[in-house]
Amino acid sequence: GLPYAVGPPFAAILAEEGGNGAVDDALADPPDTDAELLDPALFFDGFDAVDVAAPAPVDGQELLDEGPFGAMSLLLTLSERLDPREVLVALDGWAGDASSTYRLDGRPCTEIVVAGTDQAATAELAELFTAWADAGPPGAATGGLEGELARLRSCEPDGGANPSGDRVTLALPLAALRLTLV
After folding, report:
1. Are 10 and 179 in contact (CB under 8 A)?
2. Which of 25, 27, 34, 83 sits a CA distance of 20 to 30 A from 127?
3. What is the spatial distance between Cα 128 and Cα 4, in angstroms, rounded to a whole number?
4. Contact assessment for residue 18 and residue 29, using Cβ atoms and an 8 Å cutoff
5. Per-residue pLDDT tens for 47-102?
6. pLDDT tens per residue across span 7-40
7. What are residue 4's phi and psi, to 5 degrees?
8. Helix then strand then coil, % of the chain, to nearest 5
9. Using an 8 Å Cβ cutoff, are 95 and 117 in contact?
């Protein structure tokens, strides 16, 4: 639903700023990150995401995949357990990320590392990661600040509990509403 939620207001902002030519240019050279869709000022300012190395697997981890996670994926993931408004505001401090998905003791796990635009932004994202981990099943996730990055580690909980998703349904419309107001 991402393209349908944020695409029209993003295109409207482009058209308002530079007419149909700006929309055509964005289609030919689209934003490099989905953070630019959350905050079009980044797109206009020529935002370059911080290069963040994917977390390396440790003993006992079978690496399944690695690469960027993205601001939109963070919005949806964190909104499973946290207020989407707080998450959206904190993601204004997103500067880059990476993730690794692996299998540990037969359970799928994901580790995400995020750099903020400055130390305060990184610390705020780390606090959200901690709150998200604390709001879930005990022992399934940890979050916090490690070095200069916010880090979230999460494994499928015993019994495969699924989040309710009630808050997630608000996350994309909230992002679209913010863009529409811009």
Report:
1. yes
2. 34
3. 27
4. no
5. 999 999 999 888 878 999 999 999 999 999 999 999 999 999 999 999 999 999 99
6. 899 999 999 989 999 999 989 999 999 999 888 8
7. -80, -30
8. 45, 25, 30
9. yes
